[in-house]
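User: Could you write out the 3D structure of this protein bound to magnesium ion? I've included everything you need below.
Assistant: Certainly. Input first, then the structure.
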Amino acid sequence: MRPGGDAIWAALPVPAIVLDAGNRIARANPAAEAFVMRSEQALGGRPLADCLTLEAPLDEALARARRDRAPLFVNDVAVGAGGRAPVQCSLQIAPLAGQTGHMIVLISPREMARRVSQGLSVRTASRSAIGMAEMLAHEIKNPLAGITGAAQLLSMNLDREARELTDLIVSESRRIVGLLAQVEEFGNVGAPHRQAVNLHDVLDRARRSAMVGVAAHMRITDFYDPSLPLALGDADQLVQVFLNLITNAAEAAFAAGGTITLRSYYEQALRVRRAGGEGGAGTALPLQVEVIDDGPGLPPEIAAQVFEPFVSGRDNGTGLGLALAAQIVAAHDGWITVHSVPGNTVFRVSLPRAPANREREEG
Ligand SMILES: Nc1ncnc2c1ncn2[C@@H]1O[C@H](COP(=O)(O)OP(=O)(O)OP(=O)(O)O)[C@@H](O)[C@H]1O
Ligand SMILES: [Mg+2]
């Protein structure tokens, strides 16, 4: 039995609205009702502009689509509804066959595209910040070595109390040198050597090295999709990514410890639009790995910037762990996102799969 139009209309997961010739709402599907936060009945007969706040008025686009009798795509408009904050959406407008003047409007929130472009700006921002930090690191290292040496010389002729101070100079200088080394290392991450890799092996390496160090007080469980295909990636660099995520989760955990879950799964349909639209259809990123913890969650004041370098919510944190992870994932044409509420923080890394001919056997 073929499903009827009403069933399809109701099942459409995208907000869809039918406008009459006067741009008043004739129909709204359940997704649109949820989006506007009003029932179809309450919306019926009202001008579109009463129900949605649009950054740019649609009248012109609607008139054009009607005149040309052709669908029209409106990219990147902020659409608000009810009391809700506007979200970036793309709109598809198309004339409804057989009903003169009637138009259908599909509203797709641009969550994904937005995240991707945010990722890109993070990349460029981190590149310039890192360039500057590297220059500074270079400039600081030499005088610092001089200061350390001088303090060590001084300490030879000092009594114990004064020597504590010179020791402090030496140990703090060492700490700075360590930090500078980290900055330099960050700037030196090479292009990935991408091969077919089993992400579960990568995760197990990261887990093992975390368990003997920072995450010794944590429980780490896994939830692997055993049929996960191979990824196209640089195993060593990806170990670094997951190790950084596990490390953060362990450092954020309450003193009593907590649970970190490593989860993998395959998602058929995820495609990323490339910046500038090159490559047309975009890259498919079907492999998903999540590092989930039940700790306190991202500090709200830095939540929006955690992937930027030098943003840290910890005493003594350099704020490079996630910036490095984001840089590596971006070099893999992948993407990394986070969703965090107290008790449930999920970092998700999405990666492309290896081309079939690079896979030896499955998984
Ligand atoms: N799983 C998590 N739970 C809670 N907060 C987190 C989590 N992961 C990251 N954060 C927050 O994000 C900040 C930035 O993390 P990032 O790894 O970039 O830097 P860092 O851990 O502070 O320093 P570094 O990794 O360079 O030693 C952390 O300081 C912490 O406040
Ligand atoms: Mg970190």
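Residues 111-155 form the longest helix (45 residues).
User: Perfect, thank you.
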